[in-house]
Amino acid sequence: MIVSFMALEIKLRKGESLDRALRRMKRKLERENIIRDVRTKRYYEKPCEVRRRKEKMAAFSLYLKRKHEDV
Predict the structure, then answer these.
(1) How far is 32 from 37, CA to CA, in rounded Å?
(2) CA gap 51, 45 in Å, rounded
(3) What is the mean pLDDT of residues 18-30?
(4) What are 31-44's pLDDT values in tens digits?
(5) Which of 2, 31, 51, 69 is surrounded by the fewest CB atoms within 10 Å?
(6) Which whole-number Å values give the CA distances from 22 to 29, 31, 36, 59, 60, in the listed order?
(7) Quick one: which of 31, 27, 28, 53 has its CA closest to 40?
């Protein structure tokens, strides 16, 4: 199994506070879906559970799409 991690580098800009740099880092993590991936891979999920979850999400998305088409 090959696991690769992307190095995330945030450089402090001149005169930038540490809090601001942390906020930039959090936004970058959210945009690249790193946080979501880590949370989903925290525990092992059986393949049937993955399939069931995806089917449930697809059904809900279809429900919302049909609901908004009627409006």
Answers:
(1) 9
(2) 10
(3) 90
(4) 888 888 888 889 99
(5) 2
(6) 10, 14, 18, 37, 34
(7) 53
